[in-house]
Write a structure and sequence with these properties.
Radius of gyration: 21 Å
Distance between the termini: 34 Å
Oligomer: single chain
CATH topology of the largest domain: Aspartate Aminotransferase, domain 2
Order of helices and strands: EHHEHEHEHEEEHEHEEHHHHEHEEHH
Helix content: 40-55%
Bound molecules: pyridoxal-5'-phosphate
Shape: globular
Amino acid sequence: MKKNYMFTPGPTMVPAEVLLEEAQPLIHHRTPQFSEVLREIGEGLKELFGTSEDVYLITGSGTAAMEAAVANTCSPNDTAICVKSGKFGERWAELAEAYRCNVVNFDLEWGKSFTADQAEKLLQQHPEASVLCVTHSETSTGALTDIERIAKVTSRTDTLLIVDTITSIGVHAVEMDKWGADVMVGGSQKGCMVPPGLSFIAASQRAWSTIEAATSPRYYLDMRAMRKKWSEFQTPYTGPVSLARALRKALHMMRAEGLENIYERHARLAEAVRESMKAIGLELLPENPANGLTSVLAPEGIDSGELVSKMRDEYGVTIAGGQGHLKGKIFRIGHMGYISKEDLLVCISAVERGLQDLGYAFEFGSAVSLTQKLLFEK
Ligand SMILES: *Cc1c(COP(=O)(O)O)cnc(C)c1O
């Protein structure tokens, strides 16, 4: 018998209660019943984003909301500064390129976090920039960026701060309004415990002035149409009826647990993973790690891809390997969303077993033992 677990940094495991919502008979999307679903979702997402602005629901994975952010705030030949902090930072640059922006690439070594000082310098060099695009929790490296400090810098300029909070929503306390970020995007399949297929976007008041004036071509992702329809809790086109109900359920579950408790749980899980990996002689990639996933350097001579396949195919426990130039070099343990402390022991145990099978020498059982202590010792 093999039971499957996903400790991946997206998609993540989904509670049965949420999955069952998708099995319910459809309701039509132009009904008061569906509007009520959207209204409740809107409330829950505002809490997760830390904003009083409306958060819109987009049918499409996280990248759809990223594309909406660029298409709605940038016009051709606008300067867009993109922080290439990893695979997802690069996506900002590719999108800005696709929308014919004048892209200023800021190459960051993978694993490092973009700083307010770097933001300050970039904006001095490029005061004409209309947007600065950054990644809060860079899922390809596991590094976290201090958005609050960067927003302090952009708030003093005319440059909008666009933030990918796709793996920080529901994991870290995100405060769009308090921080002064201009556009934030999220996705369903990471910390929100919902299958892939939905993304979210919100914009500040000053971003809205830009959105109204922007001249980039847009149709399906036009936020002006989203805003118009959302005023009556509708979506411009056929709404994602089943996924929306799943999301409503997940948001109810999150409210019941309490957001503070959720952030605390993620911090505890993250701490246990980091410490237990260090305890068996492994090194973490990021200097300032996010709480939704942990990127670990594979031991000398071991291909992280092999560890990933072995764990998945032989023990039923899926983690992720490295992307881009880190392929084979790191493994990434996702611990966001529907993951309990008990679940984490399964994961750490499987990592130890995989490393043992691949010939890594360490004190077998010590990572599990430390995890157990950090999570449960009185
Ligand atoms: C998952 C993810 C995305 C979106 O990817 P999709 O495959 O389009 O959902 C974007 N940014 C980050 C940081 C992510 O983790």
